[in-house]
Backbone:
């Protein structure tokens, strides 16, 4: 179950990164440092979501939970 939730988080992060970058670059047309700031924000949120997903996938069960 954790693997499924982890993969969902990674998929959401990838979708957010791609769609957010497209939206910022082609729809809003910000210029200069404003564009860089918004892309860094979207990238950071995507990185956080992806790392949560990877952490959920990589978590090993303790011996008490396995029994």
Residues:
């Amino acid at each position: 179950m954790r693997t499924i939730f982890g993969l969902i988080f990674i998929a959401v992060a990838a979708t957010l990164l791609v769609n957010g970058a497209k939206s910022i670059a082609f729809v809003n047309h910000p210029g200069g440092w404003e564009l860089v700031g918004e892309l860094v924000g979207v990238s950071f949120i995507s990185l956080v979501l992806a790392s949560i997903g990877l952490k959920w996938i990589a978590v090993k069960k303790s011996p008490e939970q396995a029994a």
Remarks:
- The chain has three helices and no strands.
